[in-house]
Design goal:
Layout lengths: L1 H27 L2 E2 H11 L8 H13 L3 E7 L2 E6 L1 H30 L6 H20 L1 H15 L1
Antiparallel strand pairs: 1-3, 2-3
Helix pairs in contact: 1-2, 1-3, 1-4, 2-3, 4-5, 5-6
Length: 156
Amino acid sequence: MVENYHKNFEKIMKKSFTNIFVLSILENESSHGYKIGNEIEKRTLGMWKPSASTLYWILNNLREKGFINLLEEIKNKKIYEITDTGREILRLMKLTQGKIIKAYHRFLSVSITNGDSIDSEEIEHFEDVSSIQMLLTTLRPEKAKELTLISRLSIN
């Protein structure tokens, strides 16, 4: 039961991140699915590349909701662009995600220090590492373990 819950949570998180990645990429330039997938892989430093089926499902979903448009089709490549509604949704998604990450950081820093205060430099280091680690834990758990070891070494 726990394993099923974890896998379902992981799927939801990946799709959520993929929505943000797709809209962010299209915010800068129109693009096709294959290029978007490669850009996601590049932005995650090779840690994750959504499958073609996941990516095209998300592109269709975003299109149905009016967040992206099919700009043109060239040699069986569908070129997508973000809509004004998509830009507004992306802005709200980033804002909401930022609030969630800040709350997560506060919770973790209080939990780790048992309520003791830590200096701002330590908090900044912790927040940078924990943001990356949270993303990696969701997308590539084996890479998150490596980051944990590296961050422990750099703190000492």
